[in-house]
Specification:
alpha+beta; 60s Ribosomal Protein L30, Chain: A; 2 domains; two-stranded antiparallel sheet; globular
């Protein structure tokens, strides 16, 4: 049975000797998650949730980053899950179209703080959550992504697997944790289509129910063990022709955590290849917006469908607009958090250039999705020149991983406005040494 194989792997990983590379990449993932989390903790829905769940704060052993307030385990996981998925800077497992960090690390840290676990145990939880959830995600993709948001659905498994590992669940308890959480998997892609706080709540819910099911299983809750591959289970109900062999392929031998995409732009990942390609042309030819007569973006269908809006009026809409993000990159040279200030959203040069950007689905690139996220950028200049660049992947993808120095720079850029430079550097150093202390001692507070 599938869950038995996953549980055998997870139990082995509680004490296994892991390659140095895996430990290193686990810490990179925690640092990248922290970079996305810190600014997200200062805005809705994290701030909304703190008010809504006030009776679950200021007691318990988990700690809310930035604020330093204590919280019960589930509330901490929920709020961190929302915060880390809000500013659209969290990581991606490309082959699954999945953001593993937000639900998985949020659940692992809340659980680790609550039981005073070591940093090593916390990292083991992160690793197990990533390895199991990324493979389950591949098993049901790409058909699952037609209606469902993988971070909301598969994220439940990542969170439950991570929390169960941190709580040192035995084999039977681990099976029950995953079996139980599968029935809580939900999160519709309709959430991407309009302004709302629903999308970050997907990661919040996944972290919350993952922790809940792990805690409950640790205390005797049982689940239906064939919930994934059963006759009317997850695979049948929420995908087509699920290939469950992918859920265990290379498990414990090849570590997916070493191939996680880190975002180099503050927007939906479907915009990245087009942004990267446009910036190559801008830099190579030293282009100004006034020199660009038109831009044609030929990319995969999921990008044009999810990020096809032609006008934007808010940060949410801007992050999910190919026209806005590419125009902003061509005008300002980057797409970071400051791309979504009211001034930048209403920048006349950006808005003018947006009207000259055409989106086209390329069937060949759609066929390569989700393992390839490519874009062909074609420009016509006002002097009649025709420029073209094919971006076969995104900077930050496995083919061009961000260096440790670039990960550090991203962290400092996003953490410094929240914590101040000195405390941000202290936290960064502590995160690179996570395995040497207690998870609860990581200095996330201002």
């Amino acid at each position: 049975m599938l869950l038995e194989k996953l549980a055998d792997y997870a139990i082995h990983e509680q004490t296994s000797r892991l390659p140095d590379e895996v430990w290193h990449h686990a810490k990179r993932c925690v640092i990248d998650w922290s970079a996305a989390l810190l600014p997200g903790m200062e805005c809705a829905p994290a701030t909304v949730l703190m008010n809504a769940l006030a009776d679950e704060l200021d007691h318990g052993r988990a700690l809310l980053p930035v604020y330093g307030r204590s919280a019960c385990t589930r509330a901490a996981a929920l709020i961190m899950g929302a915060g880390s998925h809000t500013v659209e800077f969290d990581d991606i497992y490309r082959a699954g179209g999945y953001h593993p960090g937000s639900p998985t690390i949020s659940a692992a840290l809340a659980a680790a703080q609550s039981v005073d676990a070591s940093g090593e145990t916390f990292l083991r939880g992160v690793i197990v959550g990533y390895e199991i959830s990324t493979r389950v995600c591949e098993a049901v993709m790409p058909s699952h992504y037609v209606y469902w948001h993988t971070t909301a659905t598969i994220g439940c498994i990542g969170a439950a697997a991570a929390a169960a590992t941190v709580l040192k669940c035995d084999r039977e308890q681990f099976i029950n944790a995953i079996a139980s959480v599968v029935t809580h998997m939900a999160g519709l892609q309709q959430a991407f289509r309009s302004e709302s706080m629903t999308k970050p709540m997907h990661a919040a819910h996944a972290a919350d129910v993952g922790v809940m099911c792990a805690l409950a299983a640790k205390n005797g809750l049982t689940g239906t063990p064939d919930m994934l591959e059963g006759e009317i289970g997850f695979g049948v109900a929420m995908s087509k022709n699920a290939d469950w062999s992918r859920a265990t392929a290379g498990l414990g031998e090849k570590y997916n955590i070493t191939e996680i995409t880190f975002k180099n732009h503050g927007s939906c990942g479907h915009t990245f290849a087009s942004i990267d390609g446009a910036l190559v042309l801008k830099q190579k030819y030293n282009l100004t917006p006034e020199q660009i007569a038109s831009v044609r973006l030929e990319t995969y269908g999921q990008a044009t469908e999810i990020c096809g809006r032609d006008t934007v009026s808010s940060a949410f809409e801007g992050r999910f607009s190919l026209r806005f993000t590419v125009a902003s990159a061509l005008v300002h040279g980057s797409v970071r958090l400051n791309a979504y200030t009211p001034e930048r959203l209403n920048d006349a040069k950006v808005r003018d250039l947006m009207t000259r950007i055409e989106l086209v689905e390329d069937p060949a690139l759609t066929a390569g999705y989700p393992k390839q996220r490519a874009s062909r950028v074609k420009m016509t200049l006002t002097d009649g020149r025709q420029l073209e660049f094919f971006q076969p992947y995104r900077k930050g993808d496995p083919e061009q991983l961000l260096t440790d120095e670039e990960v550090d720079a991203k962290f400092m850029e996003l953490a410094t406005p929240v914590l101040g430079e000195a405390k941000a550097r202290t936290l960064l150093a502590a995160l690179w040494a996570t395995e040497k202390g207690k998870a609860a001692a990581l200095p996330f507070a201002k």
